[in-house]
Backbone:
C-alpha cells in the first residue's frame, strides 16, 4: 500500500496503471512521464501482484484507481480485483470513474454471470463519478456513492434526482497553461446543493485559502472509526 497525499483516503493501491481518457490536466500522466512506470499512458497495464496488499489486516480506506480509471479496465482485471476485495472485507475500497457507462456494463456482466455471490455493492466498495464541467454533470445517468468534482472548471449544477451521499471538491493544482482558478461562489453553490440533500461535503486542501472560514471537511461514507 502506498501512503498518499490524497486527504480523503488512507492509502492507494493501483492494480492498474494507465488511462486512455486523455484529460488535459492529468497529473498521473505527468508522473508516468517522469517515472516511466509504463511505456504508453494510453495503454493501461495490470499488476495483479499489487492485490497482495489487500490482505493486510489493519483496516484502511484504499483508493484503488488513482493511476487509472476503473471504467476503462479490462473485464478480467475488474473480476480479479473484485475477487481480492471480496476476500478482504476489513477494508473500505474507493474507485472513481469518468466512464460510469463502461463500468456499469462490466459490473452488470459480472453480477449477471452470478459468479460473485457475496459481493455487496455499496458495502465496502464505494463508487464515485469524476465531474469537472456542467456537460459531464448533465451526462450522469448512474446513481453512485459520491462525486469527485476536481478540478472544478466552471460553476456546476449537479443532477438533482440521483444526488450522492457525498461530494469531494478540489481546485486545479500545478502550473498548466490555462489553469482554472475557481471562484468562491462556485463552491458555495455546490455546498448549498449538497446541504439540501443532506450530503457530506469534503473540500480538498487546494480550496482552504479560497474558502477561508467556510472551508469544510465532513466525514465521508468510508471513513473508518479508529
Ligand atoms: S481519468 Fe484520471 S487518470 Fe484518466 S486521463 Fe483523466 S485525469 Fe488522467
Residues:
Amino acid at each position: 500500500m502506498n501512503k498518499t497525499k490524497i486527504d480523503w483516503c488512507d492509502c492507494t493501491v493501483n492494480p492498474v496503471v494507465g488511462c486512455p481518457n486523455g484529460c488535459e490536466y492529468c497529473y498521473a500522466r505527468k508522473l508516468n512521464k517522469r517515472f516511466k512506470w509504463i511505456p504508453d499512458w494510453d495503454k493501461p497495464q495490470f499488476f495483479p501482484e499489487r492485490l497482495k496488499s489487500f490482505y493486510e489486516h489493519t483496516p484502511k480506506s484504499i483508493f484503488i484507481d488513482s493511476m487509472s480509471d476503473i471504467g476503462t479496465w479490462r473485464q478480467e482485471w475488474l473480476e480479479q480485483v473484485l475477487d481480492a476485495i471480496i476476500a478482504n472485507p476489513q477494508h473500505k475500497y474507493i474507485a472513481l470513474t469518468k466512464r460510469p457507462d463502461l463500468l456499469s456494463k462490466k459490473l452488470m456482466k459480472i453480477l449477471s454471470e452470478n459468479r460473485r455471490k457475496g459481493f455487496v455493492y455499496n458495502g465496502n466498495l464505494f463508487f464515485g463519478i469524476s465531474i469537472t464541467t456542467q456537460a459531464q454533470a448533465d451526462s450522469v445517468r448512474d446513481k453512485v456513492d459520491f462525486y469527485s468534482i476536481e478540478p472544478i472548471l466552471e460553476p456546476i449544477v449537479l443532477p438533482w434526482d440521483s444526488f450522492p451521499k457525498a461530494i469531494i471538491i478540489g481546485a486545479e493544482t500545478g502550473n498548466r497553461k490555462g489553469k482554472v482558478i475557481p471562484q468562491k461562489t462556485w463552491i458555495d453553490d455546490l455546498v448549498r446543493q449538497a446541504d439540501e440533500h443532506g450530503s457530506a461535503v469534503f473540500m480538498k486542501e487546494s480550496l482552504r485559502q479560497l474558502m477561508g472560514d467556510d472551508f469544510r471537511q465532513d466525514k465521508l461514507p468510508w471513513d473508518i472509526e479508529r
Summary: The chain has two domains: 1-129, 131-221. The two ends are 19 Å apart (CA to CA). Residues 131-221 form one domain. Strands lie at 2-3, 11-12, 16-17, 45-46, 61-63, 92-97, 125-130, 146-149, 166-169, 200-203.
